[in-house]
Amino acid sequence: MNTARTLLLFLSVFVIHSFCAAQDLAFLGIPDVRFGMHTDSLKGKLAVLDTSSAYRDTATYLRNTRCVIWVRPQEKLDITGFTASRIEYEFCDKRLYYAFFKVKGTENVEKALAQLKKDFPNAGCKQDGPLSNCNAFDTSNKKFRIIATIKNKGTELEFVLVPKRLKF
Q1: Is 50 helix (H, G, I), strand (E, B) or coil?
Q2: Taking the CB of residue 33, how many other CB atoms lie within 10 A of it?
């Protein structure tokens, strides 16, 4: 009986840990960020406010807006395999739903595309050739979906990561 309970406990912890680990951005070198995390858990954040908003103060805006984009100005942008120029985190209902990445410079874009190809082996475009020949691609792996746009002849890359499953 004790063996069965121990095994059940072990399997429960393993499944919960596996699910939670599947939600984090550690594969990009950002282990402290995970999808579904609460807004309060994101340290060193600043809200990106909609300047066209009718709200006059930040507190009212944050209280009455369902989705808010946050940045961390002091965040290290040298992530696994490439350097981002900006990372934005969109929280809806105070939970992380989307992570947006911007990469600038031909060399950084090429490094980012090479890294993303490792993490998303099915990434490609309709025409043959490297990802840098694409204008956009949309693919997924077991954990995430990525939607990317390559602009200005390969000098800018923007992509969003979306978790395949999000449970709280």
Answers
A1: coil
A2: 20
